[in-house]
Predict the structure.
Amino acid sequence: MMFALSKIVGALTDPALVVFLLLAVATALLWRPRFFRSGRLLLTVLLALVLLLGLVPVDRWLIGALEDRFPPPASLPDRIDGIIVLGGSIDPAISAARGQVAVTAAAPRLTVLPALAAAYPEARLVFSGGSGRVLSPDLAEADQIHRFYRDLGFPTERIELERLSRNTYENARYSRDLVRPEPGQIWLLVTSAWHMPRAVGCFRAVGWPVRPYPVDYRTTGAGPVLPSFNPLATLAELALVAHEGVGLVAYRLRGW
């Protein structure tokens, strides 16, 4: 129940959906003579907001703040006990329907693993990713991982799969139960840089002090951010920020 509720709340906090709903309200008001002025005012405010989003790169600023929370390691230790890659980089429904692995924009979470595995041949490799879909709980990302790496010529027998998790907190909890890390071990956590604050918080909450290895950056992190003049793209990026922001607050309130 809580999982389904979290998905509904996530959808309702999508800035693009909010703008669309307000646009629908404004249109309805315009068709009622009594509320014409209110509809016109709301429509004007919405237009000004969309234009502002095209001029002010607020999405870049917010995503950059998330990405800079945990910078990439300046150097890695001589010994790594294990590497955990979080899901979110494969669409399991499309993969199952089309018979080939369909990667998402977060594919760098996957492509960084072969180089790390070659640098640390004794390290355990774990992929954590079940199904984040309410209506198709059996379609786990982990089920597509061996096919993805087999096609790349990577030895899939090295990869341990955690396929029960539905969210970031369960990534941490079920991965810990699978790995049973010992005190003093060094584990790298691989996920998108903008997702790392929530991911690290979840692993710390379950008593596992992993080391962040952020990938999949969306900002340069340097120099002034120029306007993109693309309000629709800004709304799409703000959806990611809203998702992470709501997740951080909700997870904090739940002790996750």
Observations:
- The mean pLDDT is 90.
- The beta strands are 82-86, 124-128, 159-162, 187-192, 211-215.
- Residues 231-253 form the longest helix (23 residues).
- The CA atoms of residues 13 and 236 lie 12 Å apart.
